[in-house]
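SEVERITY: medium
COMPONENT: batch folding queue
REPORTER: lab tech (J.R.)

DESCRIPTION
The queue accepted two submissions in a row. Attaching both inputs and their returned structure tokens so the on-call engineer can compare them side by side.

ATTACHMENT 1
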Amino acid sequence: MALDAKGRLAMPARYRERLLESCAGRLIVTVEFDPCLLVYPLPEWEKIEEKLVALPSMNKQARTLQRRMIGHATECEIDSQGRIRLPGILQEQAGLDKKVVMIGQGKKFEIWDESVWQDNQTAWLDDIKNDDELHSSLESLSL
């Protein structure tokens, strides 16, 4: 996928109709700690935001997470061409260049710079191969 000169990205056709039905094409784009953008349908973002706001304000990690995710949250709408415009500041935060990858993650999407995504793929696979212990939350997962 490619960002156009105005920072617009076409939403994959297979998701577009569902997003138009479920949230009238209203999405929230924000950052997190990985160098990528997170894209939530508005109703899903409202649930996440509620949880973030409820975190203890005296906890430094909680404040940092709130500042990053809530502070950068920007509403975007799917236009008549099926595109969303990613604000320049968010593109900079995620290090997005021209070519990007959009990954579906259940109730959200991640947008990565294509080269960063490719580099991380190898590192993530190596981490899994070199980690002998499975996190307890994954032990009962059956695929």
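ATTACHMENT 2
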Amino acid sequence: MYALVEIKGKQYKAEKGTLLRVDKIDAEEGSALEFDSVLMISGEGDVKVGAPYVDGASVKAKVEEHTKGKKIRIFRYKRRKNYARRMGHRQKYTMVRVEDILGV
């Protein structure tokens, strides 16, 4: 059984026990979360598709940890103009473990 859930504008496939890497959520490690924006639920042969969300469905999850992604190097350059800039960026993520899918 799995569900497609929307978290902070992005869609994730959530199965019970899986670990999802989502954009940073302001919650403490070990706290419980509940996502109500479930787009689809599939289980034991039947599929429920929402318009846009499935009524009464939710995904319960637990915050495991907060991490940072790999550093991305950004280099801007304009030839013959003496212009070169180096920058970097590390995206912040939250690791979320799916505990249960409700509304099947």
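NOTES FROM REPORTER
The chain has one domain: 2-102.
No errors were logged for either attachment.
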